[in-house]
Records
---
Amino acid sequence: MDTDAPHSMGTTIIGVTYNGGVVLGADSRTSTGVYVANRASDKITQLTDNVYVCRSGSAADSQIVSDYVRYFLHQHTIQLGQPATVKVAANLVRLLAYNNKNLLQTGLIVGGWDKYEGGKIYGIPLGGTIIEQPFAIGGSGSSYLYGFFDQAWKEGMTKDEAEQLVVKAVSLAIARDGASGGVVRTVIINSEGVTRNFYPGDKLPLWHEELEPQFSLLDIPSSPGPEPMNI
Amino acid sequence: MSKLEFDVPAKGGFSFDLCKRNEMLMKKGVQPPSYRKTGTTIVGLIFQDGVILGADTRATEGPIVCDKNCEKIHYMAPNIYCCGAGTAADTEAVTDMVSSQLQLHRHHTGRESRVITALTLLKSHLFNYQGYVQAALVLGGVDVTGPHLHTIYPHGSTDTLPFATMGSGSLAAMAVFESKYHEGLTRDEGIKLVTEAICSGIFNDLGSGSNVDVCVITKGHKEYLRNHLLPNPRSYVSAKGFSFSKKTEVLLTKVTPLKEKVEIIQSGEAMEE
């Protein structure tokens, strides 16, 4: 086991717009090689009161980028005299990511609410592209979610629908991706403010072939066992 | 017109001149010198009144134990201590550097240092060196905003946790913490748990060993328990003792302690011109 391996966030990160704001979601696993260095990390970092960013990839690179952008946005807010827009925040992140593309290895999803455009999500993958999307997914666990979102996402969801979608998606990715795990954290941003939610592992739904929770393997299971898959 | 060539000194950056020579030596079987690492188990936890840090005391140079009782809990500020794992020179240098930066900052601001200041100074330095400064740190302290515990990785990423372990023995120590840690530990429970975690590292990890150091930091007070536990006493001392060969006569025995104790004498009056 290599404890000198760079600290990376295997990760599943999601950003979804809904009718009135955005919902950001992430898992909480940070790994160094195959060891889980932090099983309860917070990958949704605040940039300003109304803009948050989901971090994935190298932990060090994403922390430094978000620290710099928070600092630039703070100055920008003072100079502008009003809260920064999500577009400005996302572009600051994009400039850092693009201009240092040789040195950085981090994929980010910037999401927030401002009074001009409402709720917006911007995806900034490796390389420093910026793309405004109605929903964005990132991290190693996102590979398992493309089909899910193609089917499950729809325009004009309510806040609760959007949050449930995000929690369901992250827990599906956790079930299939070894580098994602722990708890599900969500952040809802709208005109009223910011709400942080926390879903511990035992509150998440179980998926195909996952064991029923048992307190001891000595207990004789009462259920007849998992049902065979139907084609 | 003939071209004049000057021998310009290198503008900076790495000089590759000796690389070919090193390669040739390695082919001939010469081993490069191994640097002193602290194999290490270092831990930290937050208890009800503050923070407790713990560390083992073995320093290794490759397979050899070069120091059986080294100090891995470094002073950063009166209210902040930092345990270091990785290359011993790197952990010493980076903690000393940030400790003096913090002292200057205290003089400038006139306030007690905050743990997050030390954290930011350490993480920016380590990030700038892209992981080549191999220092993995557990930083803990109590300041006006409360008790804080952070881990810092060589590449510059940090985590904020209620309990943390680092070093080669981190898995052994984390196993103890995950099974026994709970919120609201008392001071004695906390010290006992930290000692157990370090002992787990000492006995199950080859890179950790010797004794347990503990440091308890609470609001306005700190206790550095150097060698709190000595689970590996030297039990192989020969009964004969040491004696000089036949013709040598002992004329004078003088014992010099390695660490000088400096006594500050209270001066009577201030110097006057």
---
Amino acid sequence: MAAGFKTVEPLEYYRRFLKENCRPDGRELGEFRATTVNVGSISTADGSALVKLGNTAVICGVKAEFATPPPDAPNKGYVVPNVDLPPLCSSRFRSGPPGEEAQVASQFVADVIENSQMIRKEDLCISPGKLAWVLYCDLICLDCDGNILDACTFALLAALRNVQLPEVTINEETALAEVNLKKKSHLNIRTHPVATSFAVFDDTLLLVDPTGEEERLAAGALTVVMDEAGRLCCLHKPGGGGLTGAKLQDCVSRAVTRHREVKKLMDEVFKSMKPK
Amino acid sequence: MEGTTQTDAKIRTEYGTDSSSRGPGCSLRHFACEQNLLSRPDGSASFLQGVAEKSRERLIRNTCEAVVLGALHPRTSITIVLQVISDAGSLLACCLNAACMALVDAGVPMQALFCGVTCALDTDGTLMLDPTAKQEKEARAVLTFALDSVEQKLLMSTTKGLFSDAELQQCLAAAQAASQHVFRFYRESLQRRYSKS
């Protein structure tokens, strides 16, 4: 009987739960799904991480290659993120060129990297004007059950922390780069941006970490990206219902708590990886 | 085609014709708006304000979807084509304003009007509304908001750069105040248009 009601009136079905301040999967309005992270699983990549937020799974692989620095910034390298939403993650997506959602997600990740300054592009330069690192960050969604943006930013952060770049010296006589694979060092990650997404229901209720179903029913969405100093790198609200300043404030406070949770989880994972 | 569109008059605000002067009492640049200038579409507007693409399209589309009463037009596609004639900063806000005016001109039923306002924060924390292209480039953070006309609630926001929580609230409050000017301009320009015809 409940299943029938849910099919016919999904929004009303949800409202019944929201009135009791909980959601069909048993979570409270401000509760995240179980987050798991697995680092370094792809041996062929320079850095990788798999993040699962409930059913949503995103894997990030980082490959470092050489490139000539851009002519207008000869002492900078590149960080190139790309989000791929293949048909396997959801029946919404078709194979072929990246759809709008994938493009928007890629742009969002690029903005987060740029705004938060998590990696100084100057750190990626090997020889000004001649050689620099380019980090290709490929984020592939394995299972799309809502809240892609949070999973992508977390996966990216964990993968970048996992990246180890070999030492490169330029041989003066031959002017060729010599890579020393035995000496590897981690990237200098300056800030740790963490994204917190909300779904807006009926202009007043904010649900943290929406599932795929909740995203479809919601009137709007909001993503807040914070770093550890409490600064906002990004406030992404692509249309949808109106929000007052006070509600926005609540979201920001929730984002602060989420940052602490994520940072703790990531530190634990990296600490457990140390003895190698 | 040229003859039929000249029934409407060009509408300009009283703030003077200098494109770089800012109106008294607010720090937004001079506005101008022209409506119904194309004959083929159902509605059109050009919005002049002051002197990334799929992402921006999606932001504008989602904002429009939130206010347009789509349920009154089932199985209908409403296409909004925005052509940038010149970009002197605050482009997204100008696009939002143009989209809103065009929807009004087309007679599409909406829950509320919306407007776009851009804020820039420079390195020492000073707030600038409606920045020029140069100010945007030098700013520490640029925030663009879309606000509705009923309660000035936040419909859309997109930001670039780093800023604190307090600065966000400050920018939002300033944007809400500035949006009043934009909505007043909408009302005046529409009044003038309909009083002449």
